[in-house]
Records
---
Amino acid sequence: MDYKRLGKRIREERQRLNLTQAQLAEDIDISDTYMGAIERGERSLTLDTLVRLVNRLGVTVDYMLSDSVTNNDTNIIEQFLQIIDRQPLDRKQMAINVLRTIFSYFDKDSLM
């Protein structure tokens, strides 16, 4: 388990919600000091704390642990869904169009 990467991801999601460490710590019932240590990757967290954390941040456990989980098609799709879930419909459509363009480029490149 890479606790530094997990901590970085937690920090990014906390900042996305414009929360301070103290606010997030209070919301999930842990100390500010412990929250800081988690974000720095210096401390591990219990499953209970992880569940409260992902619920408060509005993300999934698999997203938070994606650096520690082996990727397969299902995990890749879940990661994609996690990224686009909070986006407006027009941005979702734009993402689909970008993917189509990228894959069509790969298809053309393989023909050469």
---
Amino acid sequence: MELEQLRSDMVAAMKARDKDRKDAVSSLVSAVKKAAIDEGCRENVPAELVDRVIIKELKTAKEQLDTCPDNREDLRAEYQKRYDVIAQYAPRMMSQEEVQEYIQGHFEELLATGNKGQVMKAVMGELKGKADGKVINETVARLCSQ
């Protein structure tokens, strides 16, 4: 995802008077800008950074939704709308089967050692942002215990 695409979607949401969508996309744009400044790439923001920020914001929105009290339907609805909008921009993550195939294809020698720490270090370097960390951890643990 490119930062310019987020900006144009934010403008489109403003023109359509879609407040919920505008707020969610606006928060994504702000988070991307902040991350770009922190990493020193303010002028030329890479798509990888945008994707990483979107994933982080998606996790934050999911936590808000999960921790929302059941008796606060108004808040729950607001958090759900925000989560739904951010989820539309999130990059597709690899499934557990895809992660397993990738690990078995690229890290066969490391898997043979059975050292989960070494395997995780190597795999996370390559799959960070492409697959969920929990899925990677579970898959590596299962493959190392075989």
---
Amino acid sequence: MDREIPREEIRRRRIRTIITRSAIAGVAVIAILVLIFSMRKGVKASDLKFSTVEEGSLETSVSASGKVVPAFEEIINSPIATRIVEVYRKGGDMVEEGTPLLRLDLESAETELDKLNDELQMRRLALEQTRLNVATFINDLEMRVKVKEMAVNRLSAEVANERRLDSLGSGTGDRVREAELAYNTGVLELRQLREQLVNERQVKEAEFKSKQLELSIFAKNLTLQQRTLEDARILAPRHATLTYINNEIGTRVAQGEKVAVVSDLSHFRVDADIADSYGERVAPGAAVRVKIGRETLTGSVASVTPLSRNGVISFTVRLDEDDNPRLRSGLKTDVYVMCDVKDDVMRISNGSYYLGPNTYELFVDNGDGTLSRRKVKLGECNYEWVEVVDGLRPGEKVVISDMKEYKNSSTLKMK
């Protein structure tokens, strides 16, 4: 026969059941929390680059891309259309001023120059002949004027004689009028001769000056041809390095075609490009910082091109230390044109994360081994610092490494 279970025993059994179930539920919750925590994304702290928010001054700048080029570089072009006969130097050679670099075929040019010299002599002889002809013609006119003056004087004397004879009754009025008519005709003819002499002198002088000018122009053209022929003897213009030479013997080169380049590789400058939206911030004399690896060189804007091409403005940077051993022709650099100074601003180190004034989502160190994503408003920058406008406090540490891999995570655990 079944015996009734005491109430105290039933109460103890209920308590044990509740405790057991509670323990199981607690263990399950802890397991779930451990599982969730273990599934949270983590990142190695040693792989991250941090920057501590600090207060200080910020010399703002705009960035540009630059290229190191020789401070002096001269392109030597062929002054005539010809062909290469000999090459005396090779690329990379150091050359002194006046050193022959290559020889062009100048035979046809020299023959043409000889023809021009002969023509110059012929033109000079023709000019001398013109001068003699003009002098002879003018002298002949002057002699005719003198003869006419004598004839007029004689006619004047005849008029006086006829008038005297007529007053004495020995002459007639007709003879007086004939003498006066002859005299007046002679005076007109003398005047005509004198005017002709003046006109002819002016005309002949203008013709002679015109021929002199033609001769002068021809002589200048000949001098230009001589200089062109001298330039065709390709010589080094100064002490420099031969960075390029056309060494293909027998190759025909057109007039104005590049045949050699000499550069001064001991001194350099930087040619830079910047978006035309920053054009008003780039002016001659503006301070510049040029980053080459981890080294920063100072300089200033030497010149700015007045035109924008494809949304880009070009400018030249004069370096304070243009012979720095880190400089190499063709080396790509980051160029920063300094604009203004801001005092007492919050700032963090510049890096690849910064793409201009905007709001960014950066990971901030919570101090407990975790990182949390936070919206941060950033302002102006220079090559070293970025202005923090809002979202951070002095002393906080911010990750400035590339965190694109964790763009969908709000919290990260540091390992």
---
Amino acid sequence: MAKKHIRLGFADFDPGFDYRKMYLYKWLCTQFDVEVTQNHPDFLICCSFGVGYMAYPGSVKILISCENTSADFNFYDYAVTSDSIVFGDRHFRMPYWAISRHCFDDKTAGRHYDVDMQSAPARKFCNFVYSNSSHLCAIPARDDIFHALSKYKHVDSGGGHLNNMGGKRVADKLDFIHDYKFTIACENSIKPGYSTEKLTEPLVARSVPIYFGDPLVAQEFNPKAFVNVADFKSLDDMVAYVKYLDENDEAYRAMLAEPMFPGGEDVIEKYRKGFEEFLIGIFSREPSEARRTVDYGWTRNHCAFLKYKCAPFRERLMKVIDVHRKRLGL
């Protein structure tokens, strides 16, 4: 039986984006006859880095949120975000760490790190690998955690921000953090349900995360597998607990041995199946049937106003992105 033909486009991804590497695109090709085109595509996969989607008024728009942004369903027909909302068939909740794995090139996919439990406590103390500072939207608490731990013992900072390793940046983050007992794993921002690779990377690399971020993180990840800064009344109390783990090998080994998810649940597979079912529900329909946005009523005025406002916003956004890319050396 011939596969259904779909005309697919992409909008508002990072300048280095290559759709051919996307898990999402590769999976769609197993289910449909996919034609990629930017000339009036029937379906448009959108990212968070712009407002280019507005140039495709006739396309069915599916937002894949790459940041802690929520979808404006006046513009997007469907969305995949970290928000815990129910909106008919228009939204699928998936935290960013899972979005990264199931939509893009996940740096942890297929990588496995063994650790010798006997010698694991003898590794270097702690690392901090970040390029984004509070000047580029990161929460100040990230730096506070770094400085608080540094008062106890030296923390190696191998990113572009607060670098104390001679300016040299880490070439392979997972290989780097595998050599450390602890990794500072702090989100750019705090939002319920928003957890990213900041937590999963050290867990995969077998370095205990010192995590600060999603207040609901313990609902999904095993709270015995990491140090949650939010569990302590002060940074001094958190540092005291890290010091205890650092000085007590058996306590450290016990935390390191804990599974990523409670009860060994295959959360990754759960998200994969749900995400694929969500996509099938969209792409199996004809575009006219799949449309969920409306063109008339007050929505038209709302959208026209935002489009007018978005012209200067787009210019400012691209300047911020350019600054960030220069800091990363891209």
